[in-house]
Amino acid sequence: MLRLVSDTNRNIGETAVMALDPAALPEEVLTFLGEYHLATLTTLRDDTSPHVVAVGFSYDAAAQVARVITWSASQKAINAGRMQARGQRAAVGQVDGGRWLSLEGPVRLVSDPDGVRAGVEGYAARYRQPKERDDRVVIEISVERILGRG
């Protein structure tokens, strides 16, 4: 189901941003989320300024979760762990020409073997098998909002 997000500050003739229902994504959006594209992950530094980095991510449509694999000492992992404790939200976005998506929601840092396995399997299915790491963790975003055009 697509619905337009209203914005009273828009100029006449501008195109409205599309909000998508994460529980009922159109097939073209699911296809876009499965194609090989890099993305950006936005987390917050301790001073709340944005930390934006290039990442690969996977999306689990059934669970409505975006996953980014990383290592435990990375700045994005440190930020995600702190943000989880504060109940903050993160976003991951991808662009390909006129197609773009932004997936937003509460963030959490996962280090348990099953959670890490889900992140690695998702990454491998979309990109390639990642190298083994003993310090692997997964940043999960429980997707509550998706904006864009797939």
Q: What string gives the helices and strands in order?
A: EEHEEEEHEEHEE
Which fold name is given in CATH as the topology?
Pnp Oxidase, Chain A
Distance between the termini: 13 Å
Portion of residues in beta strands equals 35-45%
Task: Look at the helices and sheets and give the structural class.
Answer: alpha+beta
Find the count of extended strands (DSSP E, 2+ residues): 10
Summarize the structure.
This protein has 150 residues and is α+β, with helices and mostly antiparallel strands. It is built from three helices and ten strands; from the N terminus they run ββαββββαββαββ.
Descriptive overview:
Strands 1, 2, 3, 4, 5, 6, 7, 8, 9 and 10 form a ten-stranded antiparallel β-sheet that branches. The chain contains three helices and ten strands, in the order ββαββββαββαββ. It has helices at 27-34, 75-86, 113-126, and strands at 2-4, 18-20, 39-44, 50-55, 58-60, 65-71, 89-96, 99-110, 136-142, 145-149. The model is unreliable at 1-14 (pLDDT under 50). With 150 residues, the chain is of the alpha+beta class. It has one domain (2-149): Roll (Pnp Oxidase, Chain A).
Structural topology:
Blueprint: E1 2-4, E2 18-20, H1 27-34, E3 39-44, E4 50-55, E5 58-60, E6 65-71, H2 75-86, E7 89-96, E8 99-110, H3 113-126, E9 136-142, E10 145-149
Write a concise keyword list for the protein shown above.
150 residues, disordered N terminus, single chain, 40% strand, alpha+beta, 23% helix
